[in-house]
Amino acid sequence: MKASLIDKLCCPMDKHDLNMRVFVKHEDGDIIEALLTCPECRRYFPVISGVPIMTLDEYRDKSIEAPTLQRWGVTPAALEGENNFELKEEELLAASGPKALDAPELPGDEG
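RE: above sequence
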């Protein structure tokens, strides 16, 4: 995902702008892993393998997202038995932290 895409994305639930915390980016600047968060409804949307997962709650599967979120150190309320995909207040603040400049880079293809 190109970093500039964040300017075109909005929360699919309430149409507010999203914040982004990047966890892994390619050396060319493409975002590989990130967490998009809506400050209004507190929902999160992971970016996995460069693809933003922005489906509505009823079509999401917590068990698919949970391992990646846990690897990132994010524990959303949804992982604690609640039925939605919202972040706890402290997770929302942490998720709006460092941007792409602080994320580790993956090397490009040498071929």
